[in-house]
Design goal:
Blueprint (H helix, E strand, L loop, with lengths): L4 E3 L4 H7 L5 E3 L5 H6 L7 E4 L9 E4 L2 E5 L4 H6 L1 H6 L1 H8 L4 H6 L2 H7 L6 H8 L2 E4 L3 E3 H4 L14 E7 L3 E8 L6 E10 L2 E7 L6 E2 L1 H9 L3 H5 L16 H18 L1
Parallel strand pairs: 1-3, 2-3
Antiparallel strand pairs: 4-5, 5-8, 6-7, 6-8, 9-10, 10-11, 11-12
Keywords: FAD, Flavoprotein, Oxidoreductase
GO molecular function, one term: oxidoreductase activity
Pfam families: FAD_binding_5
Length: about 260
């Protein structure tokens, strides 16, 4: 691993002030540090967000669950407040990676990285969440922009994520057994923004399955979701599964998510 400068600020303002050039914010480090070890990333500096208390914690108020960007997956999974308000979100967090990943990885880091097979983007898009940064608020539909690409601008930091509490929500994933990333993962919800269905693992980034959304708007049932044929066009093919295989999995998992909601 190459040499780099290291800073450990105690506030959002200090962290933003410390960022610059090709320095990177360090959240849980589960993706960034691995990339650095492999020579795939070589930032001149790391700005560690671990000491910033205002980036941590979970609150539920006015029909909204707000989670600080540096809250770990394990903390979300164990939160009684999240389990009561959005059980599917707690279930998703509790099945990310292994124990090390869940205890080190953070929701903000996952969203900023936007891995095409990550779980959290499906929950954010599937619930119509809002990502708050140090500069603005970004709707989920505008945040994810493709392979490892988001609407975040240079040195813009995620501060928190706000999820509207749905009437119903469910999550299912068909995981790659070694990494536990989603070969296909589907999050469904019925809430303030209507029916939303978000798919991860199947393409270059998380996306909404409009055909399944339309079917579930007419009938919130597993049969309605599983009756939709999803096109394989634009989906990923790799050693874990072809585009056609992933296309066939999407409605199956959507139906299971509805049944679990």
């Amino acid at each position: 691993m190459q040499a780099f400068a290291y800073q450990n600020p105690a506030s959002v303002a200090a962290a933003v002030g410390a960022a610059g050039g090709d320095a990177k914010f360090l959240a849980g480090g589960q993706s960034l540090l691995a990339a650095m070890k492999q020579g795939l990333a070589a930032p001149s500096g790391l700005v560690d967000l671990g000491a910033i208390a205002e980036l941590k914690g979970i609150t539920v108020s006015g029909g909204t669950v707000t989670i600080g960007a540096m809250t770990t997956h394990a903390e979300v999974a164990a939160s009684a407040a999240v389990r009561q308000a959005i059980p599917a979100l707690a279930d998703l967090a509790g099945n990310i990676g292994d124990r090390q990943v869940r205890n080190r990885g953070t929701i903000g880091g996952s969203l900023a990285n936007n891995d095409p097979a990550a779980c959290y983007p499906a929950a954010v898009l599937g619930l119509g969440a809002t990502i708050k940064t140090d500069r603005r608020s970004i709707a989920a539909d505008d945040f994810f922009q493709g392979l490892y690409t988001t609407a975040l601008e240079e040195n813009e930091m995620i501060v928190s994520v706000s999820f509207p509490v749905p009437a119903k929500a469910g999550w299912q994933k068909f995981k790659q057994p070694a990494s536990r990333f989603s070969i296909v993962g589907v999050f469904v919800s019925q809430g303030p923004q209507g029916v939303r269905v978000a798919v991860t693992g199947a393409g270059a980034g998380v996306f909404r399955a409009s055909g399944i959304e339309q079917a579930l708007s007419g009938s919130w049932s597993a049969a309605a979701a599983q009756g939709v044929k999803v096109s394989a066009d634009g989906l990923s093919s790799d050693l874990h599964g072809s585009a056609e295989y992933r296309a066939a999995l999407i409605p199956v998992l959507a139906g299971r998510a509805v049944a679990a909601s």
